[in-house]
Amino acid sequence: MTIHVVIADDHAVLRAGLRMLINAQPDMEVIGEAADGIEAVEMARRAQPDVMLLDIGMPEQGGLQAIAKIRQASLPTRVLVLTMHDDPAYLRFVLAEGGAGYVVKSAADTELLEAIRAVANGRLFVNVSLDESAAKNAVELKAAGEQVKPELPLPALSAREREVLELIAKGHTNREVADKLALSVKTVEAYRARLMEKLGLRTRAELVRYALEHGLLTPDKTP
Questions:
Q1: How far is CA 185 from the centre of its chain?
Q2: What is the pTM of this model?
Q3: Domain ends where: 109, 143, 177?
Q4: Total domain count, the chain
Q5: Residues 16-35: pLDDT tens digits?
Q6: Torsion angle in degrees (nearest 10) through CA of 81, 145, 122, 82
Q7: Residue 62 — φ and ψ, nearest 5°?
Q8: FRET pair for 45, CA 20 to 30 Å: which of 155, 174, 197, 218?
């Protein structure tokens, strides 16, 4: 049986490399590509591949939202996330939204191919380079059908601070956040600095992780 794959990533060079790798396998074939989350869902509906190889951080519509919509549409496609994030917080949310696998982009080619085959055969695959105990806990919760999204208290943030936090966590630049909220770039920068100070964070990666752990990137909370 040939495993039909769709590649969803906003980097054309990466998609081309993945296409060559996958098409070189006797049991796999790439049948489509998508450059953003909206295209990914459309491709899943139209082509109904066995496996969709999907990045989390894509424009238009994030990977988590795409996974949820594919699941809600009851499509046969199983989603394998290929991401640069080796943080168990991302893994928990991928599994919660219905993802079937998680591989970091630093993984070896052979591991990615193994993941595609495992997911296509109905198994759950998690890249072993993730923190072992945290990943194991997330997978065990998923297998038991339990809630894998952490429910943490959210400090008091204003409505505008929450909007800025969500948009930054979804990958938008300061300019894009300013345009979406009809603010100046300097005002967005001020909100961002205030959020970092209030939440005790130092980097954008920490901000994204914080948003994930507090449930601010779920499909029903799109800004």
A1: 27
A2: 0.66
A3: 143
A4: 2
A5: 999 999 999 999 999 999 99
A6: 10
A7: -65, 165
A8: 218
